Predict the 3D structure of the following.
Amino acid sequence: MSKYPALDTSRLSGSEPFHGVDEESRISVLDFWQWASSSLAANNLRGHLAEFLVASDLGVANGTREEWASYDVCTLQGYRVEVKSAAYIQQWNQKKLSAVSYGIAPTRGWDSKLQRRAITTQRNSDVFVFCLLATKNQNKFDPTDLSQWQFFVVATAELDSELGAQKTLSLNTLKSLQHTVCDYGEIGTAICKELKIESL
């Protein structure tokens, strides 16, 4: 048994206070979230947002995000989902819109039971959901507007078969693969289609 087992993660409300300050200086977890997580356009946070959108659409966003999991979302039936995000418009100054690409490199996933990286390198999911914040109009750019998102669903077996150990995927190549494109609210149906299963 590990001397320092993994910490349990409880879902916070945001109202939890930080301790050790007087009442006038009181700060809360919500204050921290607002300070650290208000820029939904930032690359790392947009990635977390995309994971949340997929999880919420699949009805499994009631827990907390697991930082070191070898895949991003698990359906109620146990199907493993890898989520990737991209956008044309970024947080920083741009001379032109960003080219859309996604990281798809096989990895040595983290084995939480054995507390070590897996020996083999592979894509550790059943399906990929490639999320694109698709608006090209900066004046209308709004990551909370779900109509601005597109979701491309590809079975991991398709990536393995067609791309092997390739590390990145352009939007044009993504569109050339067997895939299903959908809106928020349709991700579960798209996953079923790509995995050739009846329902989630």
